[in-house]
Protein backbone atom coordinates (compact mmCIF):
# COMPACT_ATOMS: atom_id res chain seq x y z
CA UNK A 1 0.00 0.00 0.00
CA UNK A 2 1.18 3.53 -0.81
CA UNK A 3 0.91 6.55 1.46
CA UNK A 4 -2.33 8.44 0.66
CA UNK A 5 -0.49 11.71 1.32
CA UNK A 6 2.84 11.48 -0.54
CA UNK A 7 2.48 8.23 -2.52
CA UNK A 8 5.55 6.50 -1.07
CA UNK A 9 5.21 2.74 -0.53
CA UNK A 10 4.46 1.96 3.11
CA UNK A 11 6.10 -0.70 5.26
CA UNK A 12 3.78 -3.62 5.84
CA UNK A 13 3.10 -2.80 9.50
CA UNK A 14 3.39 0.99 9.42
CA UNK A 15 1.10 3.24 11.44
CA UNK A 16 2.49 6.32 9.73
CA UNK A 17 4.53 7.21 6.64
CA UNK A 18 8.27 7.33 7.28
CA UNK A 19 8.69 9.86 4.47
CA UNK A 20 6.12 12.55 5.28
CA UNK A 21 5.00 11.49 8.76
CA UNK A 22 1.31 11.25 7.81
CA UNK A 23 -0.65 9.02 10.22
CA UNK A 24 -2.91 6.36 8.77
CA UNK A 25 -6.58 6.12 9.65
CA UNK A 26 -7.75 3.00 11.46
CA UNK A 27 -9.15 1.61 8.19
CA UNK A 28 -5.93 2.36 6.29
CA UNK A 29 -3.87 0.84 9.10
CA UNK A 30 -5.88 -2.39 9.05
CA UNK A 31 -5.67 -2.53 5.27
CA UNK A 32 -1.90 -2.04 5.39
CA UNK A 33 -1.07 -4.55 8.12
CA UNK A 34 -0.37 -8.02 6.85
CA UNK A 35 0.12 -10.43 9.70
CA UNK A 36 3.23 -12.58 9.06
CA UNK A 37 2.95 -16.30 9.55
CA UNK A 38 6.25 -16.80 11.35
CA UNK A 39 9.07 -14.99 13.08
CA UNK A 40 11.22 -15.66 10.00
CA UNK A 41 8.62 -13.91 7.84
CA UNK A 42 8.65 -10.98 10.23
CA UNK A 43 12.45 -10.73 9.97
CA UNK A 44 12.18 -10.78 6.18
CA UNK A 45 9.71 -7.88 6.40
CA UNK A 46 12.06 -5.94 8.66
CA UNK A 47 14.95 -6.43 6.25
CA UNK A 48 12.81 -5.59 3.20
CA UNK A 49 11.37 -2.45 4.72
CA UNK A 50 14.15 -1.12 6.88
CA UNK A 51 17.49 -2.63 6.45
CA UNK A 52 20.45 -4.28 4.88
CA UNK A 53 22.33 -7.56 5.06
CA UNK A 54 23.54 -7.17 8.65
CA UNK A 55 20.09 -7.62 10.08
CA UNK A 56 19.29 -10.72 8.05
CA UNK A 57 22.45 -12.63 8.93
CA UNK A 58 21.49 -16.08 10.19
CA UNK A 59 23.15 -15.56 13.55
CA UNK A 60 21.20 -12.34 14.07
CA UNK A 61 17.94 -13.94 12.99
CA UNK A 62 18.41 -16.83 15.39
CA UNK A 63 19.53 -14.57 18.18
CA UNK A 64 16.57 -12.23 17.79
CA UNK A 65 14.14 -15.14 17.61
CA UNK A 66 15.65 -16.63 20.75
CA UNK A 67 15.45 -13.37 22.66
CA UNK A 68 11.82 -12.87 21.75
CA UNK A 69 10.92 -16.44 22.72
CA UNK A 70 12.54 -15.84 26.11
CA UNK A 71 9.93 -13.18 26.84
CA UNK A 72 6.96 -14.63 24.99
CA UNK A 73 6.70 -17.96 26.80
CA UNK A 74 7.07 -19.84 23.49
CA UNK A 75 3.54 -18.87 22.52
CA UNK A 76 3.76 -18.44 18.73
CA UNK A 77 1.03 -15.81 18.41
CA UNK A 78 2.44 -13.85 21.33
CA UNK A 79 5.85 -13.91 19.64
CA UNK A 80 4.38 -12.37 16.49
CA UNK A 81 2.55 -9.66 18.41
CA UNK A 82 5.60 -8.94 20.53
CA UNK A 83 7.86 -8.57 17.52
CA UNK A 84 5.26 -6.40 15.83
CA UNK A 85 5.27 -4.10 18.82
CA UNK A 86 9.08 -3.99 18.82
CA UNK A 87 9.12 -2.98 15.17
CA UNK A 88 6.15 -0.64 15.27
CA UNK A 89 6.99 1.20 18.48
CA UNK A 90 10.75 0.84 18.36
CA UNK A 91 12.46 0.71 14.98
CA UNK A 92 9.83 2.67 13.05
CA UNK A 93 9.99 5.46 15.61
CA UNK A 94 13.77 5.55 15.29
CA UNK A 95 13.59 5.58 11.51
CA UNK A 96 11.10 8.43 11.40
CA UNK A 97 13.09 10.53 13.86
CA UNK A 98 16.33 9.74 12.07
CA UNK A 99 14.89 10.84 8.73
CA UNK A 100 13.19 13.99 9.99
CA UNK A 101 15.15 15.18 13.02
CA UNK A 102 18.37 17.16 13.14
CA UNK A 103 21.51 14.99 13.18
CA UNK A 104 22.17 15.72 16.85
CA UNK A 105 18.87 14.06 17.80
CA UNK A 106 19.45 10.77 16.00
CA UNK A 107 21.24 9.04 18.83
CA UNK A 108 18.58 10.31 21.18
CA UNK A 109 16.08 8.47 19.00
CA UNK A 110 17.95 5.21 19.48
CA UNK A 111 18.02 5.80 23.22
CA UNK A 112 14.26 6.35 23.12
CA UNK A 113 13.88 3.10 21.23
CA UNK A 114 15.80 1.24 23.93
CA UNK A 115 13.58 2.72 26.60
CA UNK A 116 10.46 1.60 24.72
CA UNK A 117 11.83 -1.89 24.45
CA UNK A 118 12.41 -1.90 28.19
CA UNK A 119 8.90 -0.58 28.86
CA UNK A 120 7.03 -2.66 26.28
CA UNK A 121 8.88 -5.95 26.59
CA UNK A 122 9.79 -5.73 30.29
CA UNK A 123 13.37 -6.47 29.33
CA UNK A 124 16.30 -5.80 31.57
CA UNK A 125 18.79 -3.19 30.32
CA UNK A 126 21.27 -5.70 28.91
CA UNK A 127 18.63 -7.62 26.95
CA UNK A 128 17.07 -4.40 25.68
CA UNK A 129 20.45 -3.21 24.46
CA UNK A 130 21.05 -6.54 22.70
CA UNK A 131 17.70 -6.44 20.87
CA UNK A 132 18.19 -2.80 19.88
CA UNK A 133 21.68 -3.47 18.52
CA UNK A 134 20.34 -6.29 16.34
CA UNK A 135 17.46 -4.20 15.03
CA UNK A 136 19.52 -1.08 14.36
CA UNK A 137 22.33 -3.04 12.65
CA UNK A 138 20.44 -3.14 9.37
CA UNK A 139 18.43 0.09 9.34
CA UNK A 140 18.29 1.76 5.92
CA UNK A 141 19.65 5.11 7.22
CA UNK A 142 23.41 5.05 7.57
CA UNK A 143 24.42 4.54 11.17
CA UNK A 144 28.03 5.27 10.18
CA UNK A 145 27.36 8.98 9.87
CA UNK A 146 24.96 9.44 12.76
CA UNK A 147 25.83 12.63 14.66
CA UNK A 148 26.45 11.42 18.17
CA UNK A 149 26.13 14.10 20.80
CA UNK A 150 29.53 15.69 21.57
CA UNK A 151 28.91 15.78 25.31
CA UNK A 152 28.09 12.08 25.25
CA UNK A 153 31.26 11.15 23.34
CA UNK A 154 33.49 13.43 25.42
CA UNK A 155 32.28 11.70 28.57
CA UNK A 156 33.21 8.23 27.26
CA UNK A 157 36.47 6.44 27.98
CA UNK A 158 38.67 5.23 25.13
CA UNK A 159 37.59 1.64 25.78
CA UNK A 160 33.92 2.62 25.55
CA UNK A 161 34.52 4.48 22.30
CA UNK A 162 36.42 1.54 20.81
CA UNK A 163 33.57 -0.81 21.75
CA UNK A 164 31.00 1.56 20.25
CA UNK A 165 33.05 1.99 17.07
CA UNK A 166 33.34 -1.76 16.66
CA UNK A 167 29.55 -2.03 16.57
CA UNK A 168 28.81 1.03 14.43
CA UNK A 169 31.98 1.97 12.46
CA UNK A 170 30.75 5.51 13.01
CA UNK A 171 32.96 8.23 11.50
CA UNK A 172 32.46 10.71 14.34
CA UNK A 173 33.47 8.09 16.90
CA UNK A 174 36.53 7.23 14.82
CA UNK A 175 37.49 10.92 14.81
CA UNK A 176 37.08 11.09 18.60
CA UNK A 177 39.30 8.04 19.02
CA UNK A 178 41.90 9.86 16.92
CA UNK A 179 41.62 12.85 19.27
CA UNK A 180 42.24 10.57 22.25
CA UNK A 181 45.59 9.53 20.78
CA UNK A 182 46.42 13.01 19.46
CA UNK A 183 45.27 15.45 22.11
CA UNK A 184 45.94 15.11 25.84
CA UNK A 185 42.85 17.26 26.49
CA UNK A 186 40.70 14.31 25.40
CA UNK A 187 42.93 11.38 26.26
CA UNK A 188 44.16 12.47 29.67
CA UNK A 189 45.04 8.91 30.67
CA UNK A 190 46.00 7.75 27.17
CA UNK A 191 49.64 8.00 26.00
CA UNK A 192 50.01 10.20 22.91
CA UNK A 193 50.38 8.05 19.79
CA UNK A 194 50.31 10.22 16.67
CA UNK A 195 50.53 7.32 14.23
CA UNK A 196 47.48 5.75 15.87
CA UNK A 197 45.72 9.12 15.71
CA UNK A 198 46.42 9.35 11.97
CA UNK A 199 45.03 5.82 11.48
CA UNK A 200 41.71 6.74 13.10
CA UNK A 201 41.47 10.15 11.43
CA UNK A 202 42.00 8.43 8.10
CA UNK A 203 39.22 5.90 8.77
CA UNK A 204 36.77 8.69 9.48
CA UNK A 205 38.07 10.92 6.69
CA UNK A 206 37.61 8.24 4.03
CA UNK A 207 33.96 8.04 5.10
CA UNK A 208 33.65 11.73 4.25
CA UNK A 209 33.63 13.13 7.79
CA UNK A 210 34.75 16.76 7.42
CA UNK A 211 36.30 17.24 10.86
CA UNK A 212 38.45 14.14 10.40
CA UNK A 213 39.49 15.30 6.93
CA UNK A 214 40.57 18.59 8.45
CA UNK A 215 42.41 16.85 11.31
CA UNK A 216 44.19 14.60 8.84
CA UNK A 217 45.23 17.69 6.87
CA UNK A 218 46.69 19.19 10.05
CA UNK A 219 48.69 16.01 10.69
CA UNK A 220 50.18 16.11 7.18
CA UNK A 221 50.85 19.86 7.52
CA UNK A 222 52.74 19.43 10.79
CA UNK A 223 54.33 16.07 10.00
CA UNK A 224 52.71 14.46 13.05
CA UNK A 225 52.35 10.69 12.87
CA UNK A 226 53.08 10.89 9.17
CA UNK A 227 55.75 12.40 6.94
CA UNK A 228 55.20 16.14 6.45
CA UNK A 229 53.45 16.72 3.12
CA UNK A 230 51.84 20.08 2.35
CA UNK A 231 50.27 18.79 -0.86
CA UNK A 232 48.49 16.02 1.07
CA UNK A 233 47.48 18.59 3.66
CA UNK A 234 45.91 20.76 0.96
CA UNK A 235 44.14 17.72 -0.50
CA UNK A 236 42.44 16.89 2.80
CA UNK A 237 41.75 20.52 3.69
CA UNK A 238 40.00 20.88 0.34
CA UNK A 239 37.79 17.83 0.92
CA UNK A 240 36.61 19.28 4.24
CA UNK A 241 36.37 22.81 2.83
CA UNK A 242 34.16 21.60 -0.03
CA UNK A 243 31.71 20.39 2.63
CA UNK A 244 31.59 23.88 4.11
CA UNK A 245 33.81 23.18 7.14
CA UNK A 246 34.99 26.66 8.13
CA UNK A 247 38.24 25.60 9.85
CA UNK A 248 39.36 23.88 6.65
CA UNK A 249 38.27 26.77 4.44
CA UNK A 250 40.30 29.16 6.57
CA UNK A 251 43.33 26.87 6.53
CA UNK A 252 43.05 26.39 2.77
CA UNK A 253 43.05 30.16 2.36
CA UNK A 254 46.21 30.30 4.47
CA UNK A 255 47.91 27.66 2.30
CA UNK A 256 47.11 29.67 -0.85
CA UNK A 257 48.35 32.89 0.80
CA UNK A 258 51.82 31.47 1.44
CA UNK A 259 52.04 28.91 -1.34
CA UNK A 260 52.29 25.87 0.92
CA UNK A 261 51.50 22.69 -1.01
CA UNK A 262 49.95 24.77 -3.79
CA UNK A 263 50.96 27.65 -6.03
CA UNK A 264 50.63 30.98 -4.21
CA UNK A 265 47.37 32.61 -5.25
CA UNK A 266 45.99 35.56 -3.27
CA UNK A 267 42.68 35.51 -5.14
CA UNK A 268 42.00 31.89 -4.15
CA UNK A 269 43.23 32.67 -0.64
CA UNK A 270 40.72 35.50 -0.47
CA UNK A 271 37.94 33.27 -1.86
CA UNK A 272 38.38 30.52 0.73
CA UNK A 273 39.03 32.90 3.61
CA UNK A 274 35.87 34.83 2.79
CA UNK A 275 33.80 31.62 2.72
CA UNK A 276 34.89 30.81 6.26
CA UNK A 277 34.54 34.41 7.42
CA UNK A 278 30.97 34.63 6.16
CA UNK A 279 30.14 31.63 8.36
CA UNK A 280 31.16 33.68 11.38
CA UNK A 281 34.53 31.95 11.86
CA UNK A 282 36.54 34.51 13.84
CA UNK A 283 40.02 33.50 12.70
CA UNK A 284 38.98 33.77 9.06
CA UNK A 285 37.37 37.15 9.71
CA UNK A 286 40.66 38.33 11.21
CA UNK A 287 42.66 36.92 8.28
CA UNK A 288 40.29 38.64 5.85
CA UNK A 289 40.90 41.89 7.72
CA UNK A 290 44.64 41.36 7.29
CA UNK A 291 44.21 40.81 3.55
CA UNK A 292 42.32 44.09 3.21
CA UNK A 293 44.90 45.82 5.41
CA UNK A 294 47.82 44.57 3.30
CA UNK A 295 46.07 44.58 -0.09
CA UNK A 296 46.51 40.83 -0.68
CA UNK A 297 44.17 39.53 -3.39
CA UNK A 298 42.10 42.68 -3.03
CA UNK A 299 42.60 46.43 -3.17
CA UNK A 300 44.04 47.81 0.10
CA UNK A 301 41.15 49.15 2.18
CA UNK A 302 41.60 50.12 5.84
CA UNK A 303 37.88 50.62 6.39
CA UNK A 304 37.11 47.08 5.17
CA UNK A 305 39.97 45.76 7.29
CA UNK A 306 38.48 47.52 10.31
CA UNK A 307 35.06 46.03 9.54
CA UNK A 308 36.35 42.46 9.51
CA UNK A 309 38.61 43.02 12.52
CA UNK A 310 35.58 44.25 14.45
CA UNK A 311 33.51 41.16 13.53
CA UNK A 312 36.24 38.87 14.85
CA UNK A 313 36.93 41.11 17.85
CA UNK A 314 33.26 41.04 18.85
CA UNK A 315 33.54 37.24 18.93
CA UNK A 316 36.41 37.57 21.41
CA UNK A 317 39.27 36.79 18.99
CA UNK A 318 42.30 38.32 20.73
CA UNK A 319 44.44 38.98 17.64
CA UNK A 320 41.58 40.92 16.05
CA UNK A 321 41.00 42.90 19.25
CA UNK A 322 44.68 43.85 19.28
CA UNK A 323 44.63 44.84 15.59
CA UNK A 324 41.50 46.89 16.16
CA UNK A 325 43.34 48.70 18.95
CA UNK A 326 46.22 49.43 16.57
CA UNK A 327 43.80 50.87 14.00
CA UNK A 328 42.30 53.21 16.61
CA UNK A 329 45.75 54.14 17.96
CA UNK A 330 47.05 55.08 14.52
CA UNK A 331 43.81 56.42 13.05
CA UNK A 332 43.74 53.88 10.20
CA UNK A 333 40.28 53.34 8.69
CA UNK A 334 38.79 55.23 11.62
CA UNK A 335 39.30 58.47 13.53
CA UNK A 336 42.24 58.25 15.97
CA UNK A 337 40.95 57.43 19.44
CA UNK A 338 43.36 56.43 22.22
CA UNK A 339 40.59 55.48 24.63
CA UNK A 340 39.14 53.02 22.13
CA UNK A 341 42.62 51.74 21.40
CA UNK A 342 43.28 51.05 25.08
CA UNK A 343 39.84 49.43 25.43
CA UNK A 344 40.55 46.91 22.67
CA UNK A 345 44.16 46.35 23.74
CA UNK A 346 42.88 45.57 27.23
CA UNK A 347 40.32 43.03 25.97
CA UNK A 348 43.06 41.10 24.16
CA UNK A 349 45.63 41.60 26.93
CA UNK A 350 43.25 40.15 29.51
CA UNK A 351 43.18 36.99 27.39
CA UNK A 352 46.97 36.75 27.69
CA UNK A 353 47.68 37.97 24.14
CA UNK A 354 51.31 39.11 24.37
CA UNK A 355 51.29 41.65 21.53
CA UNK A 356 48.32 43.46 23.07
CA UNK A 357 50.02 43.45 26.48
CA UNK A 358 53.10 44.98 24.86
CA UNK A 359 51.06 47.60 22.97
CA UNK A 360 49.24 48.49 26.17
CA UNK A 361 52.58 48.85 27.93
CA UNK A 362 53.89 51.14 25.17
CA UNK A 363 50.82 53.36 25.53
CA UNK A 364 51.35 53.67 29.29
CA UNK A 365 55.09 54.25 28.84
CA UNK A 366 54.27 57.13 26.47
CA UNK A 367 51.93 58.51 29.13
CA UNK A 368 54.55 58.14 31.87
CA UNK A 369 57.15 59.93 29.73
CA UNK A 370 55.04 63.07 30.03
CA UNK A 371 56.74 63.54 33.41
CA UNK A 372 59.62 65.06 31.47
CA UNK A 373 57.26 67.87 30.39
CA UNK A 374 56.42 68.82 33.96
CA UNK A 375 58.08 72.23 33.64
CA UNK A 376 56.29 73.17 30.42
CA UNK A 377 52.89 71.64 31.24
CA UNK A 378 51.50 73.08 34.47
CA UNK A 379 48.23 71.14 34.08
CA UNK A 380 49.97 67.79 34.10
CA UNK A 381 48.27 65.19 36.33
CA UNK A 382 51.35 63.83 38.09
CA UNK A 383 49.50 61.02 39.92
CA UNK A 384 48.05 59.78 36.65
CA UNK A 385 51.47 59.88 35.00
CA UNK A 386 53.09 57.94 37.84
CA UNK A 387 50.31 55.32 37.75
CA UNK A 388 50.88 54.97 34.01
CA UNK A 389 54.50 54.07 34.67
CA UNK A 390 53.45 51.32 37.07
CA UNK A 391 50.88 49.95 34.60
CA UNK A 392 53.42 50.09 31.78
CA UNK A 393 55.94 47.93 33.64
CA UNK A 394 53.22 45.53 34.77
CA UNK A 395 51.91 44.88 31.24
CA UNK A 396 55.34 44.85 29.64
CA UNK A 397 56.54 42.23 32.10
CA UNK A 398 53.48 40.05 31.38
CA UNK A 399 54.34 40.07 27.68
CA UNK A 400 58.06 39.60 28.35
CA UNK A 401 57.41 36.63 30.63
CA UNK A 402 55.71 34.95 27.66
CA UNK A 403 58.92 35.37 25.65
CA UNK A 404 57.64 38.30 23.56
CA UNK A 405 60.95 39.72 22.31
CA UNK A 406 59.82 43.32 21.76
CA UNK A 407 58.58 43.46 25.36
CA UNK A 408 61.82 42.02 26.70
CA UNK A 409 63.82 44.60 24.75
CA UNK A 410 61.46 47.39 25.85
CA UNK A 411 61.93 46.48 29.51
CA UNK A 412 65.68 46.54 29.06
CA UNK A 413 65.52 49.94 27.36
CA UNK A 414 63.20 51.46 30.00
CA UNK A 415 65.35 50.17 32.88
CA UNK A 416 68.47 51.53 31.18
CA UNK A 417 66.83 54.91 30.57
CA UNK A 418 66.01 55.16 34.28
CA UNK A 419 69.48 54.08 35.39
CA UNK A 420 68.66 50.52 36.52
CA UNK A 421 71.59 48.96 34.66
CA UNK A 422 71.53 45.50 36.27
CA UNK A 423 67.85 45.02 35.44
CA UNK A 424 68.45 46.41 31.96
CA UNK A 425 71.28 43.92 31.41
CA UNK A 426 69.03 40.98 32.40
CA UNK A 427 66.39 41.79 29.77
CA UNK A 428 68.85 42.83 27.04
CA UNK A 429 70.69 39.55 27.63
CA UNK A 430 67.54 37.46 27.04
CA UNK A 431 67.05 39.12 23.67
CA UNK A 432 70.75 39.22 22.76
CA UNK A 433 71.05 35.47 23.30
CA UNK A 434 68.40 35.02 20.61
CA UNK A 435 70.72 36.69 18.12
CA UNK A 436 69.16 40.17 17.92
CA UNK A 437 71.93 42.60 17.00
CA UNK A 438 70.26 45.68 18.52
CA UNK A 439 70.00 43.94 21.90
CA UNK A 440 73.61 42.77 21.65
CA UNK A 441 74.71 46.35 20.98
CA UNK A 442 72.62 47.70 23.89
CA UNK A 443 73.99 45.05 26.21
CA UNK A 444 77.46 46.25 25.21
CA UNK A 445 76.40 49.81 26.05
CA UNK A 446 75.23 48.73 29.53
CA UNK A 447 78.49 46.90 30.27
CA UNK A 448 80.51 49.86 29.01
CA UNK A 449 78.46 52.12 31.30
CA UNK A 450 79.51 50.08 34.35
CA UNK A 451 83.15 49.88 33.15
CA UNK A 452 83.09 46.18 32.28
CA UNK A 453 84.99 46.70 29.03
CA UNK A 454 85.71 43.04 28.40
CA UNK A 455 81.97 42.19 28.39
CA UNK A 456 81.13 45.38 26.52
CA UNK A 457 83.54 44.50 23.71
CA UNK A 458 82.29 40.93 23.61
CA UNK A 459 78.71 42.02 22.89
CA UNK A 460 79.75 44.87 20.59
CA UNK A 461 81.65 42.32 18.52
CA UNK A 462 78.62 39.99 18.30
CA UNK A 463 76.47 42.85 17.02
CA UNK A 464 79.25 44.15 14.74
CA UNK A 465 79.61 40.73 13.09
CA UNK A 466 75.95 41.04 12.07
CA UNK A 467 76.65 44.37 10.40
CA UNK A 468 75.41 46.68 13.19
CA UNK A 469 77.05 50.01 12.26
CA UNK A 470 77.14 51.60 15.73
CA UNK A 471 78.56 48.39 17.19
CA UNK A 472 81.31 48.37 14.55
CA UNK A 473 82.12 51.99 15.45
CA UNK A 474 82.34 51.10 19.16
CA UNK A 475 84.65 48.14 18.41
CA UNK A 476 86.95 50.48 16.47
CA UNK A 477 86.90 53.03 19.27
CA UNK A 478 87.61 50.49 22.02
CA UNK A 479 90.45 48.94 20.03
CA UNK A 480 92.04 52.32 19.43
CA UNK A 481 91.83 53.13 23.15
CA UNK A 482 92.94 49.64 24.17
CA UNK A 483 89.78 48.98 26.19
CA UNK A 484 89.12 45.26 26.71
CA UNK A 485 90.90 44.28 23.47
CA UNK A 486 93.40 41.80 24.93
CA UNK A 487 91.15 38.82 24.28
CA UNK A 488 89.55 40.01 21.06
CA UNK A 489 92.38 40.73 18.58
CA UNK A 490 91.37 37.82 16.34
CA UNK A 491 87.68 38.81 16.39
CA UNK A 492 88.58 42.41 15.69
CA UNK A 493 90.67 41.42 12.65
CA UNK A 494 87.74 39.41 11.25
CA UNK A 495 85.40 42.38 11.70
CA UNK A 496 87.87 44.73 10.00
CA UNK A 497 88.24 42.26 7.12
CA UNK A 498 84.43 41.99 6.73
CA UNK A 499 84.08 45.80 6.67
CA UNK A 500 86.59 46.02 3.80
Give an overview in words.
The protein is mainly α. It is built from 26 helices and no strands. It has helices spanning 26-32, 39-50, 58-72, 76-100, 106-121, 125-137, 150-154, 158-168, 171-182, 194-206, 210-222, 230-242, 246-258, 266-277, 282-294, 302-314, 318-330, 338-349, 354-368, 382-401, 405-417, 421-432, 437-449, 453-465, 469-481, 489-499. Helix 5 crosses helix 6 (125-137), helix 12 crosses helix 13 (246-258) and helix 23 packs antiparallel against helix 24.
What is the average per-residue confidence, as pLDDT, rounded to a whole number? 79
Number of helices: 26
Q: Main β-sheet, in a few words?
A: none
Query: Which series of helices and strands comes N to C?
Result: HHHHHHHHHHHHHHHHHHHHHHHHHH
What class would the helix/strand composition place it in?
mainly alpha
Terminal Cα span? 98 Å
- Point out poorly predicted stretches: 11-15, 46-53, 94-98, 138-146
Radius of gyration: 35 Å
Q: What is the general shape?
A: elongated
Beta-strand fraction estimate: under 5%
Number of strands: 0
How much helix is in the residues? 55-70%
Label this structure with key terms.
mainly alpha, 500 residues
Helix/strand layout:
Layout: H1 26-32, H2 39-50, H3 58-72, H4 76-100, H5 106-121, H6 125-137, H7 150-154, H8 158-168, H9 171-182, H10 194-206, H11 210-222, H12 230-242, H13 246-258, H14 266-277, H15 282-294, H16 302-314, H17 318-330, H18 338-349, H19 354-368, H20 382-401, H21 405-417, H22 421-432, H23 437-449, H24 453-465, H25 469-481, H26 489-499
